[in-house]
Amino acid sequence: QVRLVESGGGSVQAGGSLRLSCAVSGYTVTSYCMGWFRQAPGKGREGVARMQKDGIAIYADSVKGRFTISRDNAKNTLYLQMNSLKPEDTAMYYCAAESSGYCYRPFGDWGQGTQVTVSS
Question: Comparing 63 with 27, which gets the higher pLDDT?
Answer without folding.
Answer: 63
